[in-house]
Amino acid sequence: MENNELKAFTKQNTQVRAGEILRALCDRREIRLFRCTVIGELDANKLLDPEGEYNCDDLSVDRPAFHACLRFEQKIHFNSCKFLENVCFASPWDTPKALKAVFAGDVVFNSSIFCGQALFANATFKQLAGFDGCEFQKVTAFRNSLFESRAMFRTAHFAGYGLFSGARFGGDSRFTNTCFGKGANFSKTKFCTAVDFAGVYAESRAIPIFEDVEFTRKGRGDDETFWRFIKQASQEAGYYRMAGECFYKERCAHLWKKFRGPDDEVERGKRIAVRLLRGLQILPELVFGRLLFGYGERPIRVLIAGAIVIIACGIFYESPLADLSGRLATESGHYSLVDGLYFSVTTFTTVGFGDIHPVETHLLTRFVVMLEAMTGAGLTALFIVALSKRYSRG
Q1: Tag placement on the chain: N or C end, fewer CB within 10 Å?
Q2: What SS3 state is found at 377?
Q3: What is the mean pLDDT of residues 143-147?
Q4: Where do transmembrane segments lie in this chain (predicted)?
């Protein structure tokens, strides 16, 4: 068997024609280019031309959904390279099912510059997909692509539009400190494991599309940094309602992350006890911050909670369990449900007209009145804060 070093297509600090790279791919040679300038269009569709100069019979794999499928078994490394024209490992725009590329080995384009379009739609990356530090000057398409292993887009710059709609990230995906110049599309994208959008920002006021984006490990808080990115982009574009919704999702994800903690922080046998302690620590935030207050984005929840308290206390005041006195009492000394609700409202709002009051010797009634007054004062304050936060942005 020939040595892989002899079979590798290796170039450094030189100009390389795209045709040479395509021929090396057909010959199943490992690609190793460092600081090279690629001249011409690197288009995998040329490999399918029956009258062309390339013989790609060994690369073809039948796929019912596609007219042709090219499987590249070798490792492909383009480090700090510059592609002067389009890089296309996908079907043309007008025939989206014409070609599917499958990369069985590592594919690395770290610190490379794509002067033309970079098209990898419907591609499958079975190993590392490395695009750290890349500059995409025009449209970049990873639509419906499958990343079975790690996908690295750290410190990348998408000067054109970034299309990730329908993509599936099966391994860790990192977009740390990446810039989207003209927007991005993450609709129907699925993140199956850890994802990191920390430091991601948008240069323009185009809001990334994120309809039906899915996070499989949502219970671990993996989506926190993604929603922070969308929130910041929405704020800069003036969509404050959308920014508020993203803030709510970000805080919910952060709450889950605090509950889970690092997986390797403790031994497996102690993990349940540690999570129980964390659960007790975050219980106030869970009840008041998320469920009741909605982190300031759900004022209607405070109103519903207040209505429940008023009705429940009103029923109690009308029942034989309560002992009230006042001029509205019936001959039997009991109050109607309407009177009970009236007293409940005045107590909840801490108005207290004095026409109905608890009997001094009945501790249960006095305790319920005191508890309702304190609850009413707290819920009123929460409602005012939530209302002002939600409708006073800008």
Answers
A1: N
A2: helix
A3: 96
A4: 300-317, 367-387
Q: Residue range 39-65: average pLDDT?
A: 74
Contact 260, 220 (CB under 8 A): yes
Three-state SS across 259-278? Answer: HHCCCCCCCHHHHHHHHHHH
Count other Cβ atoms within 10 Å, centred on residue 259: 17
| pLDDT at residue 317, as a whole number | 92
As a whole number, the mean pLDDT across the chain is 88
The answer to whether the beta carbons of residues 194 and 169 sit under 8 Å apart is no
Looking at residue 10, its pLDDT comes to 95
Vertex 106: Cα angle to 100 and 108 (nearest 5): 95
Residue scoring higher pLDDT (2 or 112): 112
Q: Which residue has the tokens 């010959």?
A: 27
Residue 36: pLDDT over 50: yes
- In this structure, is the dihedral angle defined by the CA atoms of residues 212, 215, 221 and 225, taken in order, positive or negative? negative
CA distance 238 to 354: 49
Amino acid letter for position 192: C
Phi-psi region of 355 (alpha: psi -120 to 50; beta: other; left: phi over 0): alpha
**Cβ burial, residue 4 (10 Å; 0-12/13-18/19+):** exposed
Asked if 21 contacts 46 with a C-beta cutoff of 8 angstroms, the reply is no
Q: Per-residue confidence at 206, pLDDT binned at 50, 70, 90?
A: confident
Give the DSSP per-residue string, 298-332. Answer: -HHHHHHHHHHHHHHHHHHHHSTT--EEETT--TT
- Give residue limits of the domains in the chain: 4-263, 299-391
Is residue 329 classed exposed, middle or buried when 0-12, 13-18 and 19+ CB atoms within 10 A define those classes? middle
